[in-house]
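Class, study these two lines:
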Amino acid sequence: MSPLIRFDQVFVTAHEKTILSDISFTLFPGQKAVFYGKSGSGKSSVLKTVLGLLPLTRGRVYFQEKPLTPASVQTIRSCTAYIGQEPILGAETVRDALLLPFQFKAHREHRPTDRQLIEVLQRLQLPVDILSQNSNRISGGEKQRIALARGLLLGKKLYLLDEVTSALDAESKQAVFDVFSDPDLTVLSVAHDPEWLERCDMIFGLEAGRLTQEKRHENP
């Protein structure tokens, strides 16, 4: 099996400051990986680098064993769901936010039915009546789960997650864990939550932009 994502001695500099130094790791399809470390250690920068949002100073990032370049970055973005700590949903109501990507030609033929919307909400422990709520008035944890629901409706297979369980209660957190137990989904994440770390195949420690720990374990 070929790697989905591979960092090869990656250095990233922004505003004359080195934020990632000599980062190398490999992520295969279906694996769940997490970066942890103090604030400012470069965790979120790893996710942004995957999406081509931060230019490389040295090294290479590969997606499906092809170098990530300004010309090829659209390939990875098209199959990736990035869910930050405070997602921008981009529409007035939650229903409109979920349906927003399906206005575009690439997804128009796969517009979900009301039943599919309800099913994905229930899967993520979200009430059906949230569909009519204003996107700006729901909580941060709800926004993250709506962004996740949108990724699931779009059939995304790669998820870049930034602290997605930090604002969730135990029941909602378990729902997110259950979603990502799917072996078809690949996850590259940032988290401090011990429960999330325990469920990942690979745990990477970061300090001042450098890898300080790499731990692998098999999940039951």
Observations:
- Helices lie at 43-50, 73-78, 94-99, 114-123, 140-153, 170-179, 194-198.
- DSSP finds seven helices and ten strands in the chain.
- Strands lie at 5-14, 17-27, 32-36, 56-63, 66-67, 80-83, 158-162, 186-190, 202-207, 210-216.
- Residues 140-153 form the longest helix (14 residues).
